């Protein structure tokens, strides 16, 4: 299959990238655009390490073809902090709650946590655990991850209602 150009709108900027029709969004991000914050874990949609947002909805980049994302707004972990480097409230909460150990799953966890709060699923510990269950952490930092989501949800009440 020949490579053909597509335009991906990532973190507020257009990127033209050459991809084959079968190239996943994950591979386009990591290998073509060098946005390596999105991690390749299982590459089968089971671990959540590759979670990004597509038009505001969380998706698994390993199961999404790059061509499917053309024309949509893609948000990755690299675009979450403010332009001045100010951390997003979820990123700050992960630091404050020590919600990571090895850090490999952290970008996917954070992207899912942002969606969890935005979609209004951070009302209780059980609700957070259920929503976040698609993101695996080999180190077992789950209690700290839940605490971080609760902290961020308290700091972002307007996002939870929108």
TrEMBL record:
Keyword line: Iron, Metal-binding, Oxidoreductase
PROSITE patterns named in the record: 2FE2S_FER_1, 2FE2S_FER_2
Top-level lineage group: Bacteria
Occurrences of domain 2Fe-2S ferredoxin-type (ranges): 4-80
Pfam families attached to this UniProt entry: Fer2, Fer2_2
Name this polypeptide is given: (2Fe-2S)-binding protein
Organism: Teichococcus aerophilus
């Amino acid at each position: 299959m020949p490579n053909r150009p597509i335009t991906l709108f990532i973190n507020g900027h257009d990127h033209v990238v050459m991809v084959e029709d079968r190239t996943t969004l994950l591979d386009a991000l990591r290998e073509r655009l060098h946005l390596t914050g999105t991690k390749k874990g299982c590459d089968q949609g089971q671990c959540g390490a590759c979670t990004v947002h597509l038009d505001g909805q969380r998706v698994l980049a390993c199961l999404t073809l790059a061509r499917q994302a053309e024309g949509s707004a893609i948000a990755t972990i690299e675009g979450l902090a403010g332009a001045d480097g100010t951390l997003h409230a979820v990123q700050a909460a992960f630091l404050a709650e020590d919600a990571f150990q090895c850090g490999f799953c952290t970008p996917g966890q954070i992207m899912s946590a942002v969606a969890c709060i935005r979609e209004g699923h951070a009302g209780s510990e059980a609700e957070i655990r259920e929503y976040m269950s698609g993101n695996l952490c080999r180190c077992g930092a789950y209690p700290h991850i839940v605490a971080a989501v609760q902290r961020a949800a308290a700091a972002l009440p307007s996002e939870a209602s929108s």
